[in-house]
Every structure is written in C-alpha cells, then in structure tokens.
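2024-03-11 09:14:02 INFO worker-7 job=invfold-0412 stage=load source=structure_tokens
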C-alpha cells in the first residue's frame, strides 16, 4: 500500500498531511468537523497520505492502532500566533521522545531573517545530528519572517532558506511556493540532495489549489505538506484522491476537471 516508515516517498514523490495549526494559529482554524485530531488521523489514513505531521501531545493521545500505518512526523518546536513580528520558535520535545512515541521523522520550523534565527539554526543543526544517530529523517519548515525580511515570498530569500536547510542537514525542506515556476527550479537546484516540498497555505478553491501544486511539482518540488486546504474542505477524502493524482500521476487539474470543484471554497 502507500506506507513505509523508512521511506515516505513513492516514485520520488510525497504527500504529507500537516496538523500543527491548532498551536500555530489557534482554534480559529477549526470547526466542529476538524477540531478533533482523530478525524484528521482518519483523513491521513483513508486519504493515502505518505506521512502525518503533528505535535507530540497529539501523537501521544491519538497515534494508536490502525493509524500507526501512516508514518509519523513529530514537530519539535512551535510558537503561538501572538508573536509574529520577529518570531522565534524553540524546541520543546526531544528527538528521542519523538522516536519513543513512534516518529519516523522530526520537524522543526526556522524563521529565516528573524533576529533570533541563530538560535533556531543551532537547535535544528543539533536535531539533525541526533536524528541521524537515531535513524529518523528531518524536515525543516523554512519560513522567511521577521525583522530582516521585507518580502517573505521573494524567490531569492526562499532559495536562501532552502540552501541553509540543506547545509544544516535537513532531509526535506518545506517552503511556500510563490508562483514563480522558474524560481522554483532554482530553489530546488540550490537545495541539492535535500528534497523540497511546498506548504498548502490558507484555504482556496480546489482547482486553484491543485493548479498551484501541479505547477510546483512540475518545477521540481517532490510533493507537499498540506493542512487547511484538505481538512477545511467539505470533502477532504475526495480532494485527497485528486491530490494523489496530481502528485503521483502528474495529472493536471484540467484533466481531473469532472471531479474538481472550480468555484467557491
Ligand atoms: P497549511 O497547509 O494549513 O498552510 O499548513 C502548512 C503549515 O506549514 C503548517 O504546518 C503550519 O502550522 C502553518 O503552515 C504555519 O503557517 P504560517 O506560520 O504561515 O501561519
């Protein structure tokens, strides 16, 4: 089937479900259909996701039974939505503990260009070292943000971030795709052997979402780590099935047009 804890890539591609927004953004992202973590574990399992990324507290309580088929990524740091001016996000969970609760990989966010970036570089570098010793892969959420950043979506800045993630030891770097397809090729080139995945972003209509992902994939990204566009959708499993076709079969949203929602959200 889809899952293999030692390799979250199928033919070089990956489709990761992210559910750390309850901490990062707060319950404002949720409604009665998606505030319960178990409902999102069901989407990860039945939607054929390659891996599922959550905080340790969620994994401890819900990563049980059949859900353990889906490889787990435990996020080791987080910040809440109150400090966005010059953000810092520090490690609160160890790599060893992530492994103990079943993680195949660990995740960490770096805010490139924050005046606190050095602390995050140092923490993530040490995490990479420890993860390698313990046999876990590492994924870096690399988000330009803070005092020194004028444009969070500048291609050069995103590219600089991917390069830093690679040099610090990340196996995977997660970035925001800015719609610059030629720029994406440069970002992937500069990330070298570190694989590049893109974030989902806030909810847009399905067609626009899939079009964006299709473009990013065709410019060298190996997949995505998505949250809101999936679990805020009215039919997350249908959307996930279409997403699988875009990522793993290289289908364009135009080719899927009969099952893709074009209007509204
Ligand atoms: P989405 O697909 O919902 O955008 O999630 C991707 C993600 O990286 C989450 O893992 C994280 O919680 C969130 O975005 C952080 O986004 P931001 O800091 O830009 O608000």
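2024-03-11 09:14:09 INFO worker-7 stage=emit residues=265
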């Amino acid at each position: 089937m889809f899952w293999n804890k030692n390799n979250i890539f199928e033919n070089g591609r990956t489709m990761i479900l992210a559910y750390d927004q309850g901490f990062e953004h707060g319950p404002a992202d949720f409604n009665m259909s998606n505030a319960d973590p178990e409902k999102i574990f069901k989407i990860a399992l039945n939607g054929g996701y390659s891996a599922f990324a959550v905080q340790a507290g969620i994994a401890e309580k819900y990563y049980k039974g059949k859900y353990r088929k889906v490889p787990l990524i435990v996020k080791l740091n987080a910040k809440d939505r109150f400090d966005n001016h010059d953000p810092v996000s520090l490690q609160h969970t160890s790599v060893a503990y992530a492994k103990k609760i079943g993680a195949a990989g660990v995740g960490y966010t770096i805010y490139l260009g924050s005046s606190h970036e050095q602390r995050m570089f140092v923490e993530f570098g040490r995490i990479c070292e420890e993860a390698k010793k313990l046999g876990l892969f590492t994924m870096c959420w690399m988000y330009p943000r803070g005092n020194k950043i004028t444009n969070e979506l500048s291609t050069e800045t995103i590219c600089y971030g991917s390069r830093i993630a690679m040099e610090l030891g990340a196996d995977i770097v997660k970035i925001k795709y800015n719609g610059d397809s030629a720029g994406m090729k440069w970002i992937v080139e500069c990330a070298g052997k570190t694989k590049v995945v893109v974030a989902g972003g806030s909810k847009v209509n399905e067609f626009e979402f899939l079009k964006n992902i299709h473009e990013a994939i065709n410019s060298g990204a190996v997949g995505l780590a998505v949250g809101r566009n999936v679990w805020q959708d009215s039919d997350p499993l249908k959307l996930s099935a279409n997403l699988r076709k875009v990522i793993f079969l290289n289908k364009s949203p135009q080719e899927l047009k009969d099952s893709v929602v074009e209007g509204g959200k």
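2024-03-11 09:14:09 INFO worker-7 stage=report msg="Residues 20 and 54 are 5 Å apart (CA to CA)."
2024-03-11 09:14:10 INFO worker-7 job finished
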